[in-house]
Structures are given as structure tokens and as C-alpha cells.
Amino acid sequence: MTYDSFYKSGGPIADAKAPAGPVEDRWTTRKFQAKLVNPANKRKKKIIIIGTGLAGGSAGATLGEAGYHVIQFCFQDSPRRAHSIAAQGGINAAKNYRNDGDSVHRLFYDTVKGGDFRARESNVHRLAEISTQIIDQCVAQGVPFAREYGGLLDNRSFGGTQVSRTFYARGQTGQQLLLGAYQALMRQVDAGNVELHARHEMLDLIIEDGRARGVVVRDLISGEITSYTADAVVLASGGYGNVYFLSTNAMGSNVTASWRAHRHGAYFGNPCYTQIHPTCIPVSGDHQSKLTLMSESLRNDGRVWVPKQRGDTRKPADIPEDERDYYLERIYPSFGNLVPRDIASRAAKNVCDEGRGVGPGGLGVYLDFADAIERLGLKAVEAKYGNLFEMYERITGENPYEMPMRIYPAVHYTMGGLWVDYDLESTIPGLFVIGEANFSDHGANRLGASALMQGLADGYFVLPTTVGNYLAENNLGEVGEQPVAEAEQRVKDQIDRLLSVDGDRSVDSFHRELGHIMWEYCGMERTEEGLRKALDLIPALRKEFWERVKVTGKGEELNQQLEKAGRVADFLELAELMVIDALHRAESCGGHFRAESQDEDGEAKRDDVNFAYVAAWEWAGEDKQPVLHKEALEFEYVKPSQRSYK
Amino acid sequence: MKLKLRVWRQNGPKDKGKMVEYKLDDISPDASFLEMLDVLNEELIAKGEEPVAFDHDCREGICGMCSLVINGTPHGPEKMTTTCQLHMRKFKDGETIDVEPWRAKAFPVVKDLVVDRSAFDDIIAAGGYITAPTGTAPEAHATPVPKPDADKAFEAAECIGCGACVAACPNGSASLFLGAKVSHLGLMPQGQPERWDRVVNMLEAHDDAGFGGCTNTGECTAACPKGISQDFISRLNSDYLKATAGGKKK
Amino acid sequence: MAVTGGVLVLYLVLHMVGNLKIFYGAEDFNHYSHWLRTLGEPAVPYRTVLTAIEVVLALSIVLHMWSAISLGKRAAHARPVKYKSKKKSHAQGYAVHTMRYGGIVIALYVIWHLLDMTFLVVNPKGRDATPYERVIADFQPSHWYITLFYIVAVLLVGLHLRHGVWSAMQTLGLRSPRNDRALRALAATIGAVVALGFISVPVSVTFGWVG
């Protein structure tokens, strides 16, 4: 089967930076091989960082401390608000404090397997090695992790792993880790090593002689367009889940920084890999602006069910036991309600597609605690989940102690992102990409409590070594006027273009419609037919956007409509690439489920013969077919096997 | 639901600004407060008017970006809840709702309901950290932390930096924000070496930013969406006195 | 505020205890009044200790007021633009809302009280009377407005202490979750005892139980 009408095939691409040798020695080797910048010269080296989440914040703090001149931007009003702050569960580390058989190798193994064999072994091993240092670093910063009565750190098991390796701070681990990084960053701001610009959004990349040399930003308060040049540019701008409009991402999360870089030649890796989280609060109406995640831990005691009968509108309490379908327990007897995220999500979608969903619009399933309350007592359930139940009640107005919760899957994380090599450098020299913004370590599916680990590993430990090597190898002069002027002009043209359409449809209405297309055809289950349909719909919607969008106000002021419009314009382009990627990958793997590729039981069927590669997409120009470059994946240590949770 | 809104509109920092009335006819009680404002903005755009600018990001109560004084109360009528998690079912059909920005000299209005809270960043930069350069950290288990201390520190560290404490305080003081950070770090063994410098430097930054003094009214805790306790202000005062009068700050 | 407030609380308690001497009769009360002036004799001259106390008190009151005024000024400075809608209070306790206007009323009362009892310029009996007679004269039913003013001021003093004592401990960093309940109870007790103790005198005079 070929989809060559949608894309062009380019030459293969390879990660040239990971050293050869045993996987456990590679990072040590790379660190030793990396050239160092003379301490006296560091001050003269400028590094731009976009974003202040776990990856960007930790990178800024570390590079500032190292003596570089860091210039950092975030679109929020303070670096502390980056969306890493919302991560609930925890952070994995192979400390083996439980003596339960954990090790760097086991974390490595679990992550490669959990990623459904679509990640690089070298990268994942490095991540597992660094995981232990992250915990040390965060504890030294005063992060108030949960502790046991002896004063030592507590761990829990998370996301279906068999060892307890997750460190946590109640349900607010992301917040505490981010505040640790933020405080370290503010210390560097105070010391004058980091020049911080909050409420600034990167709108373009400055390229000179093929290298990333700076950015054009818009001051979101005054609307002023300014350029900053540097020796290297780091994108830590997060994921692109908001292409679906409704997601658990923050309202401002966007793909613009990454997409602008992509348009300048940075390849986009595996854009179709998205993670859909099974336990979110369902949509309640057209007004809905975002979805709220409920911690996965709820599935430890809650039982998931729907009525056996289609269109059953009785109250849950009125549905007798034998007319309920505890479908996860039925289909997956050994894992039951604890099957991995992608499986739980798809199963929910299937029962709703059959017309058995509950709540408004039939898009929800019950998560019932009646049995748990009977078995453990109300007190025990309250102690374990009290705050989550409160949050649920606040949002839905329903009391989960008395009636089952309604949950539905929602877009949560994007494993895809800009393609980077082992050094986290993109295909544009001097442009580094870290955290969720890159595609690197999670393969086709991310394990719970691994996002925080990756963001901090990249920012605290990997990037400072590799960006140093780049700066030591390349002594770059001042950036000329022309590339700066050109980049600024591009930004101004785009803003003028957005403002001049002056149509009759709001930005949000386009975003909603795009989200609907993506969720319908490029969501939990993808079919060739649906994806092809999306490929017709998206370009048409994009065309309409540029004919009918209404952006109020001016460019030279605080203009939230203009901000949104620019982001949606980029989502409209990204969406098409996601669909093309999903269409070309005619296999099911991790977060990407192709209906055509399943076994007789309806389980995902991976195709290692044809698809054991990273799809790195090159931008070919507006309305031109993107070019696919394949990076072959080899597994020397963890032999690919089919997942089974039956 | 039908609603009458009175919203503070202000074109820019220099504009005088005023309350402007809007009527909404069809709001779902399941909508959040910010989603209700989204609906208002969609209607304004359709009429060709400027939508209302307001800060928001995560919409799940943790980033601290949303603000709004609703009917005279920061984050609105529901306790321990940020504006983004406040839902319209908490209001009556036909109700008139006043929506204003945080009011403080240190939080100047940028536009409409958007204020500049960078003074909080300045306070953190003045000492709200533990100096631990990357790579220098000892093994995490080298320093046990008594569980009660760690738990208490966590309660202080829960602060989301939204500024509701300042908005609610009759004195426009940021003592709760300040006390929470001083306490979080001061309760951890890792935070001891810088403890006395930290409290003095952060308090100076607080005063320099133009925040008011604390008179222990307790409005801050009552407004705090995370319920941060006034205990941490007592701790702040204690540490400050020990650092200065007690001569602990060298 | 906390330190000067502490001095004033201590004084108020002593003052109230002294006032209660009136229930022992005119002689005891006048004697007490005289003893205050001769305290420390013969080691120090007449009225030395009392004058010293008065100086400390005056200083405390001035500093207390100065702190209050500068906090108020700072508060006004910290919020130059007020809220349009009426700001709702959610803090616990009524006393906390009486601190500012209560303080002003108390200050006005103290001025009148000094003119009445110390400088004797507004007292119905004036210079020629004994302290006991002056008190009795003040609180006759015909002078009900004086009594009312006194009672209102003293009730405000009670409320002032109710919040002030607790607040002082908070300001000095001595309050903790462990002692909070005890401190609140202590503040309430001091406030109530001082208010009732002071009020008992004019009420007794008005109703003729004393005099």
C-alpha cells in the first residue's frame, strides 16, 4: 500500500551522535567526547531558550549557573506557570529504594517496551541512567517529596509497572518540581546570568548560513516585534495536544515555536503519536474549553462499566448488577481495570460507539466506587481519593460518593515532536529541542510519570553537555542584519495577514472545528477512510480560515485574539502533517491505533517489518507534499514483542 | 441562565477604565466562570466589539494565572477554588455579577482584567530558592527529613502564586505569599544555610515592590484557593525577628 | 504595634483592677489613688513612679498610633485604586473589623478621659472633689451620655484586645498551630474580663449600687 500521493519519500536519516559500544557506556562516552567551552568564554556565548517548563526552566537555571548568557522567553506572565505545573502523578527514577528489583536496566527495558518499540535504545538508556540524579537534584533544591515516617522518600507504583519507582508530592508533583526549577531559574535571573522575558511569544526563527541564530518575539503586552540573536537556540515549548482544541493541555499551549522551526527545515518526528488519557471528566456542553484529568490512580479501586443495553437512560443506581457490563474486567481478566492507558481509552470509545455510553451526548463511561466503599469503608476511600472526589464534584456538581463518576478519554500528551539526534539537536544546526517539544524518548506511547523525568533529564543534564559541545565547536560571529530583518518581516507580514482578513468567524470557532476533525478522524482509532476524509477537510478549513477569520483589535497592543489566531494558523498546518503521518503508518503502535491493523481480538498489531522506524518529516512548502525521511530503529537489548494484557 | 455582568474595561495601563454592563441570555450552569467569559467574548467578536482581556492558562486550578475579583471576592464565592474551577451553577439565574481585576499598586492593570504580577517573581528572585547548582547534589537519602516537616513544607509549597491573598488583603500585603515560600524552604533541612538571609532579603523585596504591611486580618487565607494557612505568616515573622533582632543573619 | 500593644494591655489590666477598688468604698478608693502618687516614696520623690508610668504609656500610645497610621498609609498606598463592588470580608471574627475605627474611638475616649480624670477640666465635680466623688459624679443617671460613651469605648477596647492580643502573638511569630486555640481563648478572655471589669463601675454607679 502506498500513500505517495500525500507525501514524497526522502533519503534515510540517522542519528549520528550516539556513540557506538555497549548501551550503558554511551552517555559516559558522549560526555567525555563532548568539547568544553573555556569558562572565561562562556559569558560571551548567548543561548536563547523558549519556554520555562520543566525542560526549559531546568535548562535555563543550569546554563545560567554554568556561566552562559541565557536569554529566556515564556508566553505566560511568569515562568512558574508553564503547564508542567499541572502534572499530577509523579516522576520515575531507578533508585531501587524499595529493593524490589528495580534498576537502570529495568527502567530502560520498561520504557522501551512501554513505548511499543518505537524509541531509540540509546536515548532511553540515558534517560534511565539520569533518572536517579534528577531525584538527588530536586531534593537538594528543597522539593517537598512525600516521605515515610523514617524521613526517607516514599515511592509508589504507577502506570502498571511492577516496581515502586515513582516519587511524588501528593497529586502535585509537577507543580513542586517546576517550582524547584523556577526558583533555581529566578536565582540566575537575580544573578544577571539569565535575561528573562515573560509574556513574550516566539513567532519566528532567525537562520544564518543554515544555523539557528536567534528568534523574533512579540511582546504580548505592547505588541512590539523584537529580535534576539544568539549562538544557539533551544526550544522547550511543550507539546501540541491543543490541535484537538479540547485536551488536558493549558489553553495557551501551542505548536508555534516548533512549527516555525519546522518550516525552516527542522524535521518533525512521529507527529501522529498522541497519548489519550482514559480518565478525564467528560465534555458537558458546547461551552467546554478544556478537559480535566482525573488521576489514573482512581482505576486502582474504581470499576469501569456501562449498561449492557444501548441507549439505557436509567440512573446508574437503577441499573441492576446483571445489566451492567464491566467491560474491562470482561475483556482483560488478568489486568481488569488497570490495563494501560491506550487500551483503556480505546475500550471506552468502543462501548460509546456501540451506543452504550452514558451522560450528555453518550460520551462517557461510569467509574464506580460503590464496591470500594463497601469493601474499604467510606473513610478509607475518602482518605485515598478525597481531593479527587472534591475536584470532580466542583466541576460536575455530582457527588461521586453517591453516584458513579463519569469519565471519558482525552488528549493528554504528544509523543511526537521535532526530530532530534542524541545531542537533542534538530536538523537545523544550533537548534536544540528538549522536553515534550522533541520526539525522542517515549516512542509511540509514554509511560506514566515519565514526562517529568524526561523534561528534567533534558534540561538539567543532557542539554548542558551537548549545547556546550556545539558552542565549543562553533565560534560564530555576529549575526548579519539581513537574516534578522527578513525574519522580522515574515512575522509582521503574518500579523498583517491575520488582521487584514477581517472576516466573520471567530478564531475559536475554527479551532473547535479543527479539533473536532482531529478527534473524529485522527483520535483514538484511525482508519484509512477517516484519515483520507480529514485530508480533505483540513486544507478546506485552512482555506476558509484565511478567508473568513475575524481578528479584532490591533497588532500593537495586548491582543489575545491575535495570539490565538497565530497559534490556530499553525495548528491548521500541523494537523495535516499529523494526518499524513497517521495515514502512512499503516500499523498500530502505542498511541497510534489503526483499525486496519488489529488482531482477531481487536488488539493493536504492530508491524515491525515495515514500520520499525522514526518518521521524520521535512517541510516542502505551503500546499506541497511533505518529505518523509526514515530513521531505522534497531533493538539490540530489548527484543520487540507484542504487548498482551489479557 | 440569564446573567447581567459588570466588567471592568480598561484599554491600557494609562486608561482610566470603567465598569461596563453586558447581558448574557443563555449560559449553561455547567460552564465554568471563564467559559462564561469565553461566551461573552464570542458574542462581542460577532458584534465587532473588542473582547474582554483576562488571564488564564491551565484552567484546572494549578497554574495560578487566572485572577478576577468576582462580586468583591477574589476567585469568587466558592471556597478553596480558583476562578477557572468556579462553575456557573454557583450563581443564581438572573444574578448581577461584578468582575474586576486584582487591585494593588504592585499589580498594575495591563488591560481590562489583566494585571502584571511580576513583583512576585522579584520576591522569589530575591531569595526564594535553595542554592543547589545542577550536579552538586548529594544522594537524595543522605538527608532524611522528618515526615511532619516535609508535610508542612508541602502545605506551604502548594501556593500557586495567583495573588488572591494580595487582592483580598485590606492592606494590599503579600505576606501570605511571602510567608508560604519562606516557610516551605525554612522547614526543609536543605534550606537552613540560607534561611536567615532569605527571609530578610525576600521581605525587603516585598516592601520595595509596594505591597502593604500585614495586620493579621486573615482575609488572605480565606481567599487563598489552596487554603494556605496564616501559620506561615507567624513563621515568617518569627524567622524575620530571629534573623534581625536575634542577630541570626550574619 | 505588638510591643506597644502589649504594654497597653498590661496597663489596662492593672488599671481595671484598681478601678474595682471602688467597690470597697470611698476611703479605699481614694487611698488607692493617693498610693499611686506616693508609690516608691521615700526612695524617690512624690509622683515619680506614676509619672514614669505615664511617660511610658504616653510613648506607647503614640507609637501604637503611629504604627497604625503608617500601616494605614501604607495600605492606602498599596491599593491606590479601590474596588468598585463592595468588597466582601471572609475572615473569621467580628473583632478584626473593629480595629481601625475602634482604635479611633478609643483614642478620642482616652483624650476625654484624661481631661476628665487627670486634668479635671471636664469633670462635673472638678478640682475640689476626691477621686471617688468625681467618679460618682460622672456616672449619675443624669449624665447617661457620659456613661454611654464610656461603655461604647470600653466595649471597643474589649474587641480591640480580642483581636489585638492574638494578633500581637502572630506578629511576634509566637503563634503556632499548637498554641492557636489557647491564644484565641486567652485573647477572648482578656478582652471580656477587661471590658466587663471596666463596665462594672459606671453601671454600678448609674444604678446606685455604689455611691
UniProtKB/TrEMBL annotation, chain A:
<keyword id="KW-0274">FAD</keyword>
<dbReference type="GO" id="GO:0009055">
    <property type="term" value="F:electron transfer activity"/>
</dbReference>
<dbReference type="InterPro" id="IPR037099">
    <property type="entry name" value="Fum_R/Succ_DH_flav-like_C_sf"/>
</dbReference>
<dbReference type="GO" id="GO:0005886">
    <property type="term" value="C:plasma membrane"/>
</dbReference>
<keyword id="KW-0472">Membrane</keyword>
<keyword id="KW-1003">Cell membrane</keyword>
<dbReference type="Pfam" id="PF00890">
    <property type="entry name" value="FAD_binding_2"/>
</dbReference>
<dbReference type="InterPro" id="IPR027477">
    <property type="entry name" value="Succ_DH/fumarate_Rdtase_cat_sf"/>
</dbReference>
<dbReference type="Pfam" id="PF02910">
    <property type="entry name" value="Succ_DH_flav_C"/>
</dbReference>
<dbReference type="InterPro" id="IPR030664">
    <property type="entry name" value="SdhA/FrdA/AprA"/>
</dbReference>
<comment type="similarity">
    <text>Belongs to the FAD-dependent oxidoreductase 2 family. FRD/SDH subfamily.</text>
</comment>
<dbReference type="InterPro" id="IPR011280">
    <property type="entry name" value="Succ_DH/Fum_Rdt_flav_su"/>
</dbReference>
<feature type="domain" description="Fumarate reductase/succinate dehydrogenase flavoprotein-like C-terminal">
    <location>
        <begin position="511"/>
        <end position="645"/>
    </location>
</feature>
<dbReference type="GO" id="GO:0033765">
    <property type="term" value="F:steroid dehydrogenase activity, acting on the CH-CH group of donors"/>
</dbReference>
<dbReference type="GO" id="GO:0008177">
    <property type="term" value="F:succinate dehydrogenase (quinone) activity"/>
</dbReference>
<keyword id="KW-0249">Electron transport</keyword>
<keyword id="KW-0285">Flavoprotein</keyword>
<dbReference type="GO" id="GO:0050660">
    <property type="term" value="F:flavin adenine dinucleotide binding"/>
</dbReference>
<feature type="domain" description="FAD-dependent oxidoreductase 2 FAD-binding">
    <location>
        <begin position="47"/>
        <end position="452"/>
    </location>
</feature>
<keyword id="KW-0560">Oxidoreductase</keyword>
<keyword id="KW-0813">Transport</keyword>
<protein>
    <recommendedName>
        <fullName>succinate dehydrogenase</fullName>
        <ecNumber>1.3.5.1</ecNumber>
    </recommendedName>
</protein>
Automatic annotation (TrEMBL), chain B:
<dbReference type="GO" id="GO:0009060">
    <property type="term" value="P:aerobic respiration"/>
</dbReference>
<dbReference type="InterPro" id="IPR006058">
    <property type="entry name" value="2Fe2S_fd_BS"/>
</dbReference>
<feature type="domain" description="4Fe-4S ferredoxin-type">
    <location>
        <begin position="150"/>
        <end position="179"/>
    </location>
</feature>
<dbReference type="InterPro" id="IPR017896">
    <property type="entry name" value="4Fe4S_Fe-S-bd"/>
</dbReference>
<keyword id="KW-0479">Metal-binding</keyword>
<dbReference type="InterPro" id="IPR025192">
    <property type="entry name" value="Succ_DH/fum_Rdtase_N"/>
</dbReference>
<protein>
    <submittedName>
        <fullName>Succinate dehydrogenase/fumarate reductase iron-sulfur subunit</fullName>
    </submittedName>
</protein>
<dbReference type="GO" id="GO:0051537">
    <property type="term" value="F:2 iron, 2 sulfur cluster binding"/>
</dbReference>
<dbReference type="InterPro" id="IPR050573">
    <property type="entry name" value="SDH/FRD_Iron-Sulfur"/>
</dbReference>
<dbReference type="GO" id="GO:0046872">
    <property type="term" value="F:metal ion binding"/>
</dbReference>
<dbReference type="InterPro" id="IPR017900">
    <property type="entry name" value="4Fe4S_Fe_S_CS"/>
</dbReference>
<dbReference type="InterPro" id="IPR009051">
    <property type="entry name" value="Helical_ferredxn"/>
</dbReference>
<comment type="similarity">
    <text>Belongs to the succinate dehydrogenase/fumarate reductase iron-sulfur protein family.</text>
</comment>
<keyword id="KW-0411">Iron-sulfur</keyword>
<dbReference type="GO" id="GO:0009055">
    <property type="term" value="F:electron transfer activity"/>
</dbReference>
<dbReference type="InterPro" id="IPR001041">
    <property type="entry name" value="2Fe-2S_ferredoxin-type"/>
</dbReference>
<dbReference type="GO" id="GO:0022904">
    <property type="term" value="P:respiratory electron transport chain"/>
</dbReference>
<dbReference type="InterPro" id="IPR012675">
    <property type="entry name" value="Beta-grasp_dom_sf"/>
</dbReference>
<keyword id="KW-0408">Iron</keyword>
<dbReference type="Pfam" id="PF13085">
    <property type="entry name" value="Fer2_3"/>
</dbReference>
<dbReference type="InterPro" id="IPR036010">
    <property type="entry name" value="2Fe-2S_ferredoxin-like_sf"/>
</dbReference>
<feature type="domain" description="2Fe-2S ferredoxin-type">
    <location>
        <begin position="3"/>
        <end position="103"/>
    </location>
</feature>
